[in-house]
Amino acid sequence: MPDATSQPRSRAQRITDTLAMLQSPARDAWVASASSDDDGAAHPYLIPLSLVWWDERILLALPAASRTARSIAATSTTRLALGHTRDVVLVDAVAEQTVPVADAPADLAEGYADQADWDPRSDPEGYVYLVLRPLRIQAWREVDEMPGRTVMRDGAWVT
């Protein structure tokens, strides 16, 4: 955690720190999704999941029948939060594809297993990988880093 005397990070440093956080082994994230019922009432949902940064994408592995997997498949959108309140990374992402674990290409499955703290191939029944493309990423530590907190916009790193 930064100390009270530290200066706001440059955007380049924030991107470096964000990538380090995304690429760290056994990284977990809070994954938010929402669905609506027949009368239009919204049902937000938040769950912690293992996250993997793979080929400029985010991989999640979860049961296909889970509320989160169904909601993201229905809306194609999600928001993820990493870190804690004084060193946060927020990611707005869209779902590119859903891949059953049993049918996943070897590079995707190995990429997930290499970084995550578990390998869903050991019990693949009903599990899927969600491949998410980040559209916007924000990173900040303190109020003084609120300006310039967007480090990715429209899927491209802001330099």
Automatic annotation (TrEMBL):
This is Pyridoxamine 5'-phosphate oxidase. InterPro entries: Split_barrel_FMN-bd. SUPFAM superfamilies: FMN-binding split barrel.
